[in-house]
Amino acid sequence: MNVEAGNKLDFSALKQALSGDLYFDDSPEDRAVKMAYATDASVYQEIPLAVAVPRHEKDLVKLVKFCRDARLPMIPRTAGTSLAGQVVGTGLVIDLSRHMNALLEVNQAEKWVRVQPGIERDVLNELLLPYGLFFGPETSTSNRAMIGGMIGNNSCGLHSMVWGTTRDHVLEVKVILSNGEEALVKALDATALQAKKKQTGLEGQIYREIDRILTDTANQKAIREAYPAEKVVRRNSGYALDALLDSYPFGGKKDFNLCRLIAGSEGTLAMITEAKLNLLELPPAEKGLVCVHCSSLKESLLVNLIAIKHGCYASELVDALILGFTKNHPAQQKNRFFIEGEPAALLMIEFMEAELEQMQAKAAAFVHELKSLQLGYAYPLLTGSSINKAWDLRKAGLGLLRNIKGDAQPVNLIEDCAVAPEDLPAYIDELQELLQSMNLTASYYAHAGAGELHVEPLINLKSATGRIQFRELLAGTAAIVKKYKGSLSGEHGDGRLRGEFIPYMLGDRCFELCKEIKRLFDPQQVLNPGKITDAPPMDAYFRMPANPPSEKVTTHFNFEREGGILALAEKCSGSGDCRKTHRAGGTMCPSYMATRFEKDTTRARANLLRQFLSAEPSAKAFDHEEIHAAMDLCLSCKGCKAECPSSVDVSKLKAEFLQQYYELHGVPLKARMIGEFPALSAFASKFPTIYNWSMKQSLFARPLKKLLNMAAERDLPALHRFTLRKWVEGGKRGEVVKRVEGGKRRVYFFCDEFTNYNDVELGMKCIKLLEKLGYEVIIPQHIESGRTHLSKGLVKRAKQIAIKNIELLAPVVEDDCSIIGLEPSAILSFRDEYLDLVPPTLQE
C-alpha cells in the first residue's frame, strides 16, 4: 500500500486495505462525516482531513502505519464528549466506538474484565451485573462514555471519593505504538522490568528512557514539588510522572506499570486496542440520598465538609441556575419531586450500608449535626428508584445550561479545577472575587466531595471582549489553583484548552520532562499532537465565529422563542446524550441506536447546520447536500426535544432545512407522494377493496415501493373498508351508545388522517369507550393534521393546513371542552408545530 500517490495521501489505497470504513473525498456523504467529527463537547472546531472507522485491531495497525509513514496526525476517538478539545484537530480521526466495543472476557474469581475501547461504561456494568461486579468510575456521561475515552482522560465521576479514578483500575492495556509495534502494558516486578529494558525496538527504548528520567534525583525532586498535593485525588495536569514516581523502584508501590502513565495521556502516547480493568463487588444494597437545601453556595460547601466527615459515598452540588432550567424541561420536570422552595444550592449526599437501619442511622446522624449547626433548611432522604431520578437531574447539568438565551453562554474553561476538599470553600471565595472583578457570572455544580466544582462562566465567545475574558479568566484561575497546590484539570484533561498552561502549573523542568515523554513515545508527533504538549493557543479555532454577521435567515417556522434558527442549532453542547444505546432507555436517538455512527446523531445534525449557518446566514446556508446527508435518517420522532438537556429540536430543524432545500432544488416525487398521503388515501378510500388487493400484488406494489424507496419487506398501509367519519356520520356504527340527556360532558375528537383511513377500528373503540364513560363525542369540521407534510419538510403546505385547522376549530373549542386524538404525532402538532407556523393572531 503506497502512502502517497502523486504527492497526495493515497487514501483510496488505504480504504481498499481496510475492512472498516474511510471517509476522505469530496462527496456529500464524506464531507458530512468529516464535519460531524469536527467538534466534541468543547468550544473548538477543526474539520479533519479524513475519518476512519476501523472494524478490528488489524485495521488499526494499518491506520497507525499509514499515519506514521505519511507523518499524518491521528486522533483516536470514542464518544467524543471531551471538554478540552482532545478529539478535535486536522489529520485522521479514528472512531473506535462503532465496531470495537466488545466485552472480551470476565474473570469473576480474580475480579477483572477485558474489553475493547468502544464499550460504554453503563453497558459494561449491565453485562457485569450477573457476576456481582462492576467498574467503579462513573462520569455524568456514563450511559455513553466509553472505556477508551475514560482511560484517555483518567475519568472519575460521582463516586471518586470512594472508588477512585480510572487510573486506579486499569490493570493492563494492549496498545499500538507510534511506529506500528504492538505491545502489552501491565504490572511488572523487578525481573520483568529488567527484561523489558533489554528489549530491542521502541518498547524497550521507552522503558529504558523512563527509568533514566525517573532515576535522576533532580527530576524526582522537581516532580514531587511541582505536581498537585497528594490529598488532591483528581490530578490530570500533564503526564502522570508523579504516579510513576510512586511505583517500584522509586516509590511505595510494589510494581511498575506504564498504565499509570497512559491513563490520562489523551491518546498522545499509544493507541489502545484492549484494556484489562479491575472490578469491584457491587456496593452495599441500602442506599440513601440526603438532599440538603442550602440558602447560599458558601453554606453548601460547609455542609460538604461535614458530609465527608460522616463517610458519604458521594457529595454532589447543583446550584440555583441549573435547578431553574429543570422547571420547564420535559425530561427533568418529573425529577424535581423532592425540591422544596427555591434553594440557592442543593447538595446531594449519598450513604450506603448493608442494612437499611444502618443507612438511615448514618443519614440521621448527619442531618442532626447539620441542624445543630443551623446549616440547610430541608433534608429529604431519597431511597430506591427516587435516587436515580435525582442523579439524572444532577447529571443533566452541562446540557441544561445551554438553555440560557443570548450569545453569552456557559463555557468549559475553569470547570475542571480540583483542590483538596478542605480548601474548596476558600478557593471558591477567591474564584468568585475574580469573576466579580471581570463582571462575569457562573454556574456551580458537581463533585464537591472530591474538591472539584464544575464552574461554568457565561462568556460571549463571538465577541472580541469575550475572547479576551476567556484567556484572562483561565490565567487568573490557574494562579488561584496553584496557590492551593491543586490541579488545573481534575478529570476532563488538558487537551488543547489547558495544555498551554502546564508550564505555569508544573514549572519548566517538569514540562520539559512531559515533552521528553511525548518525543519518546511519539518521535514523529503523529499521535494526537497538540494535546498536553505543543498545544495551539487556547483561544484559537473556536467553533463560534468572531463577530458574526447580524443578517438573519428568513424561515418558515417561527424561531423567536429560540432566538433564531442558528441559536437553536448552537444550543447543542456536544454532551452526546444522543449517543446512548437502546440499553440506556429513552427514545433519543433511534438512528444512532441503529447505526452507532456519529453522523446519525442529533449532535451531528445540529452541528452541520450550525457550521453552514454561521458561515453564510442566508438561504445559501441550506444549499448543501452535506446537511441533507446528515438529516436523511432522522425519523422526526422528537425524542431530542424531550430528552436532549439543551432541548435541541432537530425535527423542527430538519423540516425547515428540507423546505428551504426544496425551494432551491425542487420537491422529490417521493417526498411529495408521502406528504400527500392523506389526499391519496381519500381518493383510494372510494374503492378500498381494489386498493388493498393491488397493494398486495408485486406487479403494483414493487414499483411503488421502489418509487418511495421503501424496503421490499415492508407492507404498504391498508385502508379500512370505510372511514371513521362515515361510520360516525353515515350510520355505519355497529353499536350505538344510547345518549343520556342532561349533564353530558363534551369532547371534540380530532379525526386524523391515519385513524380516519387506516386504524378505523381503533377509532371506533375509542369513541365507544368515551361514550360509555358519559362523554358526548363530536368530530368537528377540520382537515388533515399536516403531519405527513412536516415529516417530509413540506412546511409551506403544513403551514396552510395549520392555519385552516385553527380557523375551523377556534369557534367550537372552548376552555372547558377538550380536543383529543389517537395519533400522537397528529394531535400534538397543535402543541408542537402549529404555534410556530401560524400568525400571532391565531396563537391564542
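Above is the first protein from milestone M3; the second protein from the same milestone is given next.
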Amino acid sequence: MVSNSVKQGLASSLNRNFALIESNVKKAVNSRDLILSSIPDIVNSQLFTINIKKDDVVSSDKGGLVGSTAVSIDTGSLNSSLSSISSEGQVSINASDEVNFSSSQLDGSEVDINANRANINTILAVNEEGDLTSVSKTKIDGESSVNINTSDDLNIQNSDITASAENSQINLNSQNGDVTIKNDHSTSSSFTQEEIGNNVSTSSTQSDTVLSSNISADNVSISAKKDANVVSSNISSTSQQGSIDINAQNVNIADAQESVKIQNEEYSSSPTEINHKNSSLATSTSQGSSLTSQNTININASNEVKITGSNIQAQNSANINAENISVNNGTTKMASSSQASNVQVTGFRQTSQNVESSTVASSNISANNELNLNAKEKVDVKGSNLKGKETNINANEVNLIAAQNQTNTQTNSLGIGIFANANLELAGQGISANYSYANQTANTKKLDSENGITQGGLRSDLFGAGEVGVEFISTQKITNEATHVSSKLEGANINVNSSNTLDIGGANLSASKDINLKAGEIKSTKYADTKTQSSTGFTLSVKEKLESVSPLASFANQISQNFSSKEKGLNPNLAITSVQVLSNTVNILSNNIVTGKSNQTIGFKFEQSQSSSSKENITQISAGENLNISSTKGNITLNGTNANADNISINSKKDLIMNAAKSKSSSSNLSIDASITNRQTAGYHIIDGGVVGNEVEFFANGSYSKTKEDKFSNTTLNANNNVSIETKNDTILNGANVNANNVNLNIGKNLEVNSLVDTSNSEKYGGTLGGTISGAFSSNHIATGSVSGMVGVGYKRSDKAEVSSQSGFDAKNEINGVVGENLSLKAGILNSQISSGNLEVAKKVLESDIKTHEKSDGATVRVSGGTSKSFGVVIDIEDHISKTGSANSASNININGGKNLSTDTQNTQSSTDSSWAGGTINFSTSVTKVKDAVNNIRGTNSNPTSNTNTMHVNETTETTRL
C-alpha cells in the first residue's frame, strides 16, 4: 500500500483531475526520493503532474505513467528502467540534474526533455541461448515533435527516436557539451558437433553485432556546443520539405566494427586414409552511419567535419561547411588460418596458410542537386565517393587521396610421398605425364624445345625418360600485396577551387558536362600498387630413373632446333651448323647407337626466389563537354593522367609538367642441387656390338638469375575538338601525348617534348661439377675401369631499351601557337594529320633522337674427360640477338614558317638487326675410337691382330679386349 506520507505528498502536488490507483510501493525514501516500483499504469486521469524539490530523484523501475491529456515531471533527477511514460498529449520532463532512460518507452503528441545531462540507452542482458542482446529497446516517439535539451552532454545509444506527423521535428541540443548518437554491440555464440561414422566435425561461431540508434522525422536538428558524434547509427529526414541540420564545433560521422569469429575442425579416417583439418576466420566489418534526407542535409562545424566509412544521401542538396573537412574510408579486416594434414598409402602431407587483409570501405556522399563542400582551410577525400548534379569543393587546400587495400599471405607445406614422371621427346616435340603426392600434382602436358627434357639442348641425345621414387618436400611462400582504391568525383558539373594546393592524384573525375579545376598550384601524387613474393623450398629424393639416349636423337633435335630458329626469324649460324654436322657424324661412329640407362639416385635440391613489382595509378578525368584546368600561383603537374573531353583548356601561372606513370619489377632466383647416382647401362655400338656397364656418378649444379624492368604509361590529353595550353613559363611533356582536332599553344618560355625509354635486363649464371667411376663389358671386349670428371659453366644475358610510345602532339586538323623561348624535341613528334599549322619559336629549335637496342646472348659449356683418352664437350649457344636503332623527332607542321625537321611523323623509329640463331653441339669420342671406326669402315683395324697375351683398349667405352 502507498504510505500516508507519500499519499499526502502526491496529493498536494497533483492536479485534482489526477486519479492514483493504490498499489504496493517498493520503497519511499524520505522526502527527497520517490521510487515508483511495480506500480501499474496510472490511468483515467486528465493530467499527471509531479513536482518535487530540485534535488529530489524520481525512479521508475518496471513501472508506467499514463496521462491522457499530458504528463509533466519536474524533478532533480529522473531514472527510468524498463518503464514507460505515455500520453495522448504532451510529455514534459524537466530535471535540474540528470535524466536516464534505459529500455524505456516515451510517447506523446510532443515529447520535451530538459536536463543538465541526458543518457538514453538500452539494457543488454543474456538470454536463454546465452547471447547478450537488447532488452526492450528504448523508444521515444513524439507524434509531432521530440525536443531534448541538455546543458551538458546528451548521449543516445542503441535507441530509437521518431516523430511521425507531417512537418514533424526532432531537436537534439547540448548547450555546453556533446551530442553523441551511437551504437551498442550484442554478442552471440554457437557450437555444433556432428559425427557420422569415422567422420567428426565441430564448428563454433562468435558474433559481435552492431546495434544502431535510429533517428527519424521530417526535420532533424542536432546542435552541440562541442562535438556532434554519429557512430554506426541512422538519421533520416522523411519529407521532401524537410532537412537534416547538424551544427557543432566538431562533427564526427563514423563507422563501428562488427566482428565474427568462426572455428572449424574436421577429422575423417578410412582404411587407406586419415585427414585432419582445422581453420579459423575472423572478420571485422565496417558498419557505417547513414544520413538520408528526402530534401536537404546541412552539416556545419566551426572546426572540423570528419566522415569515416559512412553514407550521406540527399534527394535535393547536401552542404558541408567547416574549417576542415575530411571524408575518409572505413576499413574491413580479415584474418584466416588453416591447417590440413593427410596420411595415406602414398605418403604424408601437411599444409598451413595464414592470410591477413584490410580492404577499403568507402564513404559515399551524394545529392541529386548540389553537393557542396566548403572549408576555410582543408578538404581531404580519401578512398571515398562524391556525387552530385553539381559537385562543388571550395577550400584553401584540397587533397583527393587513394586509399589502400593490403593483403599478407604465408603458406607452408611439408610432404613426403611417391612421385612418378614419364617423358618422350624427339625433334622438339613430346609429351610428359607427372604425378607427385607431396606437391599434390597430377598432369600431362606437351613438350617443346623450351620446356623439354633435353634441357634446351644440353642433353640433346635424350629422347625418353621415366622415373619413380620417394621425395620429401618443404616449401614456404610469403606474399605481400597492396592495391589502391581511388576516390571518385561525379556529377553533371564538377567544380573544385583551392586558393592554395589541389592534389588530384588519388581520384577519378567524371562529369557529363564540365569539369573546372582551379587552384594556386595543381599536382597529382601517384599511388603505387605493390606486390612482393618470396619463396624457399628444398627437396630430398630417392628415385629409380630409366633413360634412353642416342646420337641419332641428338641429330634430329638439333635439326628441329635450327628450323625453330628460322621460324622465329633468326638465321642459323653456318659455323655452328657445320660443327653440328661434324660432331654428330663423330658421335654416331664413336658412341652407342642407342643406350638404355637405369639410375638409382639420391638427390637434394634447394630453391629460393624473390620478386617485387609496383605500378603507379592512372588518374582518370572525363568530361562530356569542357575540361578547364588552371593555376593562379604555381605549376600544374599531371602525373600519370588520362584526360578526355570535347575541349580541354589548361592555363598555368608557371609551368605545365606532364609526366608518365611508372611501373617496375624485379626478381631473383637461386637454385642448388646435388645427387649421387648408381647407373647401369646397356646399349649397342656399331663396332663393339652389345655393351653393358656400371658407374657411380656425383653431380652438383647451381644457378643464379635476376631480372629488372622499368616501363612507362604516358599521360594523355584527348579532346574531340580543341586543346588549348597556355603557360607563363615552361610546358614539359615527359612521356605525354596530346591528341585533338586542333591544338593551340601559348608557351611563355620553353616547350619540351621528351619521350621516355622502357628498359629491361636479365642475367643468369650457372655452374656444374660432376665425377664418375665406371666399368663396362661388351660382346667382344673385356672391361676395365676408369675415372672421369665433368665441369660446366654457363651464362645468359639480355638487355633491352625501347621507346614504346613517343611523346608529342597529334592534331586531326592544325597545331598552332607561340613558344617564347626554345623548342626542344627529344624523340618528340608534332603531327598534323593534314600537315597543317605553324609554331612560332622565338629562340632555338633543338631536336635529338633516343638510341634503342636489344641484346641477348649466352652459352653453356660442359667439358668431360677421364683417365683414358676419351673426352666430351657439350656446347649450347643461345640465340644471339643484336638490334640497334633509334627513335627520332619529327614535325610535319611549319616551325617559324618552314619545315626544318624530318616531316615523316609516321615512321620515326628504325633499327638494324644482326641477330643469328644459336644451337647445340654435343661431342663425345676418343682418338682410338675414331681410328677403330675409320678402319672398320675400310675393313682394317688400327691395332695389329693380338694374341692372347696382348690387350686392346677402347678409350670411349673404357672396355678392354684381350
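Note on the second protein: The longest helix spans residues 551-567.
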